[in-house]
Design a protein that fits this description.
- The complex is a heterodimer of chains A (171) and B (706).
- Chain A is built from four helices and ten strands, in the order ααβββββαβββαββ.
- Chain A is mostly beta strands and 171 residues long.
- With 706 residues, chain B is an alpha+beta fold.
- Chain B contains 26 helices and 18 strands.
- The chains are: A mainly beta (171), B alpha+beta (706).
- At the A-B interface, strand 4 and strand 5 of A face strand 17 and strand 18 of B.
């Protein structure tokens, strides 16, 4: 998958992927993997996806903070998805990506994931149903779980919401 | 026209009226000191009037009703019917606070709610507060001198200086109604009602002026005729059918009888003097104020208009954007300077040198556009000092020095709160009660001096008072009592270091917590704020003589000269302002004193810290002493400390990029910057780093002691 396909803000690239516009309200989600699990973020929340970048570590910061990067002259904080989902850390490799998203506070932050897969379309009704089922206190960043529709696999996709991450700064 | 938060006129109003409000703060306090200043009274009256006019146009009725009443009071004041008392001033300052909060809500696009009928009545009541005195002194005269009043007019006018309050109110209301019909509820709904025709207005003026004044002079007929020219200004056409000057003149001619004889007299003396002055022929009495206002008023707009053409209001966001771009350019220049060496080409070197020069000039020029006089911050202090002194029952004079000093806009804003706190502290802790002062042979009135001056690329602000000063011994004892320090550590502090103790969080010398101070939070906050601005704060005090707090901040926040160092293979920037010396560690002796490594520099023992310990990542191995280690000596507060670094790269001007909110709980970093080679370097905030790394030691020790 080329870098250009990761650029989500362009509507054209979405249509090129041959996704049908059904009568139902469709929302688009970017799927990514962390430790073999599939997760998805709403495309509207994702600004861009970066390949490897030089991450400058911050001594003394929260363990989930990998460091900061220079994103075209702006300093962006990078978090590690693995720490969030309480998974063992893994060094940055060729598949690793940084998903840049805007948090609720308006701050832009990046999150390191094992790989970014594709953009999928989900029926809003399915998403809402998933949201209702997953209102657990312990999973503040998880919206809900939807079944993986396309490939006939029985795996689930975990829908995540990164907007609440700004609370990390309060701790 | 309904209230629209997005309205451009509203934005203009907020800016312009906001400036008036800012000025009012100072003017009101100034008025209290000089209650007879006619100019000032007029200025305040006009300010309220202008704000009211704008608010009326925008249909912010809650603003209108407050301004209207305040305006009434000032009208009485400037006519000498009321005298300036602190009771009036207190209410007026509260009015100002109310206006400020209304403006704040307007800025966020919310129509402010009314201040409440009780407060409005309180303002109104002021006009009656001194009425009894006025009425009792001259009830007979009022009766005697009442001239025949045109019975057919709705508003009856007595050309007597001591108009009955009711008459006066009626007149004022009639005038207000004429000028701003939207201020009255009846016409709120229709914008079309805002306009009254010239004929109507003229008729109204005629009625107001009454018979007695007609034959006197030409200025009255002049006024209405000018009205017809007023709507030339398209923006104000609907709201200000008459301009302020005209309104003034109308008022002047109305009150002319009273003002004529009193223009040269002090307002307080007006009332006893007035009776004899009343029979003075109308002509001289009424002409005077008109003549007085004339030469100044028409002249002033001309220079203003000329000035308008040379200045442009620019959104500060745009300035910030330009500043950021220049910051980027500086980084590119730094990079070019790094690359220059690898080119080894004469021409390229020359081009880069030119770029270097132009960038520096541009940087300077853009920086200048962001400069604001420190007056903007200082302006609020007369009020702060007055309020604090009043609450405490102290007498304090505030002296402002160097108000014209220019300072980066962001700094001006960022300094405001810390300075308010320091000034309040000076009044509260520094200045003694008047009787105590007198007993000590000092004048009863204390003096707080606030000064600003530029020193090279820094601004020095100082707050000094001639109060009680601080006792180093007491501070030392308190720090031990509060568990902030061990007794031995406290005993070792120099006097200067003792004063700095007040900057520690949780430190307060006050045993009782008051509204004003004593929570032990303030100075820590001040310290943090100043440090964030990469400024230094130091305290000097002499018991019985006073205290001086000096703050040194860089001229601008955007670009910071730093010393680039390498620690554990990573680059860090230390603000150059605090670096006092760099030397090799190898030839210096290091001793361990009380568990703390110290290095002796010119017979002075300094605490030595290894930065690689402070800046270690979790799980990282800390290296020991290396042969090439360098020591950077930095000044943190009043303390000199020695820091061990792996190597020193050199001096670099960096653009501070703030760290995100996610990292704001990480102490020790003032931000990050992108270095000449495109990498990121963290900018060290040494006071923060020290707090993070040294403080626990004290606590650990305390546990052992306890």
């Amino acid at each position: 998958m080329s870098q250009s396909e990761y650029l989500i803000n362009s509507q054209d690239s979405l249509d090129d992927m041959g996704l049908e516009q059904g009568p139902a309200v469709i929302s688009r989600w970017v799927t990514f993997t962390v430790a073999e699990e599939r997760y998805a973020l709403n495309v509207l929340d994702v600004q861009e996806v970066l390949r490897a970048a030089e991450i400058t570590p911050i001594p003394g910061a929260h363990p989930a903070v990998r460091g900061i990067i220079n994103l075209r002259g702006n300093v962006v904080t990078i978090l590690d998805a693995r720490v969030f989902f309480s998974l063992p850390e893994k060094p940055f490799d060729d598949d690793s990506r940084i998903m840049v998203a805007e948090l609720r506070s308006g701050e832009v932050a990046g999150i390191v994931v094992d790989s970014v897969a594709e953009v999928i379309a989900l029926d809003e009704a399915v998403v809402n149903a998933a949201k209702r089922s997953g209102g657990d206190e312990g999973s503040a960043h998880i919206l809900g779980v939807v079944p993986q529709t396309e490939k006939g696999s029985d795996k689930l996709i975990i829908l995540v919401d990164l907007k609440g991450l700004s609370e990390l700064g309060e701790k | 026209m309904a209230f629209e938060p997005e309205n451009e006129l509203l934005q203009d109003f907020l800016i312009e009226a906001g400036e008036l409000l800012d000025a009012l703060d100072t003017q009101l306090v100034g008025l209290e000191q000089a209650p007879n200043d006619k100019e000032l009274l007029n200025a305040i009256f006009r300010a309220f009037h202008t704000i009211k006019g704008g608010a009326g146009f925008l249909e912010v009725t809650s603003l209108v009703e407050v301004c209207h009443r305040a305006e009434d009071i000032f009208n009485l004041l400037r006519n000498g019917e009321l005298t300036v008392t602190s009771a009036i001033m207190d209410v007026m300052l509260r009015v100002l606070d109310a206006l400020n909060s209304m403006f704040a809500s307007l800025r966020s696009g919310i129509l402010p709610p009314s201040v409440g009928a009780a407060f409005l009545r309180e303002i109104e009541a002021l006009s009656h507060s001194q009425k009894i005195a006025a009425v009792t002194t001259q009830p007979i005269i009022v009766e005697k001198t009442l001239p025949p009043v045109d019975g057919s007019t709705a508003v009856s006018i007595s050309p007597n200086n001591s108009l009955l309050e009711t008459e006066f109110d009626q007149m004022l209301r009639a005038l207000e109604a004429a000028e701003h019909p939207q201020a009255t509820p009846a016409s709120d709904a229709l914008a079309g009602n805002d306009l009254i025709t010239d004929e109507e207005f003229e008729a109204l003026l005629d009625r107001l002026h009454g018979k007695g004044q007609f034959q006197v002079h030409g200025s009255d007929s002049d006024a209405p005729s000018r009205v017809t020219h007023a709507p030339v200004e398209p923006v104000h056409a609907t709201s200000d059918d008459i301009t302020d000057e005209e309104f003034e003149r109308v008022l002047d001619s109305l009150y002319g009888k009273g003002q004529g004889p009193t223009t040269h007299a002090m307002p307080e003396t007006v009332q006893p003097v007035a009776p004899s002055a009343v029979p003075v022929p109308l002509s001289t009495a009424t002409v005077k104020p008109v003549l007085e206002t004339r030469p100044t008023k028409p002249v002033s707009p001309t220079p203003e208009a000329a000035k308008m053409e040379t200045t442009v209001r620019v959104d500060t966001e745009r300035l910030d954007f330009i500043m950021n771009l220049v910051g980027e350019l500086v980084l590119v220049r730094n990079r070019m300077n790094t690359l220059k060496l690898s080119f080894n080409n004469e021409e390229v070197t020359q081009v880069i040198a030119t770029l270097d020069m132009v960038t520096s000039d541009l940087q300077g020029a853009v920086m200048k556009t962001r400069m604001q006089p420190v007056k903007k911050v200082f302006g609020r202090f007369p009020r702060v000092v007055r309020d604090t002194a009043r609450i405490l029952g102290k007498e304090v004079e505030l002296v402002l020095v160097g108000e014209e000093t220019d300072l980066d806009k962001n700094l001006v804003e960022a300094l405001a709160d810390p300075l308010v706190h320091l000034v309040r502290n000076s009044v509260d802790h520094g200045i003694e009660m008047p009787d105590v002062r007198v007993a000590q042979g000092k004048p009863a009135q204390g003096t707080v001096t606030l000064s600003a001056a530029q020193e090279g690329d820094h601004i020095r602000l100082s707050i000094s008072d001639d109060g009680a000063g601080m006792n180093a011994e007491v501070l030392r004892r308190k720090s031990v009592e509060k568990g902030l320090m061990t007794e031995e550590a406290a005993g070792r502090l120099t006097e200067q270091e003792c004063f700095e103790l007040i900057l520690l969080p949780g430190f307060s010398t006050k045993d009782q917590i008051s509204d004003i101070s004593g929570r032990g939070v303030g100075m820590d906050v001040v310290k943090t704020a100043i440090t964030r601005l990469s400024g230094l704060i130091n305290i000097d005090s002499q018991q019985g003589v006073g205290t001086t707090i000096n703050i040194k901040v860089p001229l601008t926040l955007a670009i910071l000269p730093t010393l680039m160092v390498v620690v554990s293979g990573r680059k860090y920037a230390i603000p150059l302002g605090i670096v006092s010396e760099i030397f090799e560690m190898a030839d210096k002796e290091i001793n361990i004193v009380d568990g703390q490594a110290t290095i002796t520099v010119r017979d002075r023992a300094l605490p030595l810290y290894r930065l690689n310990h402070w800046l270690a990542l979790s799980g990282e191995k800390m290296t020991g002493r290396g042969a090439s280690d360098l020591v950077v000596m930095v000044q943190v507060g009043a303390q000199l400390i020695a820091l061990v670094v792996d190597s020193v790269i050199g001096q670099e001007e960096v653009v501070i990029k703030p760290l995100g909110e996610l990292l704001h709980n990480v102490g020790g970093f003032a931000g990050a910057t992108i270095t000449g080679d495109g990498h990121i370097a963290l900018i060290l905030d040494l006071p923060g780093l020290m707090r993070r790394n040294i403080q626990p030691r004290y606590k650990a020790k305390l546990k052992v002691v306890a």
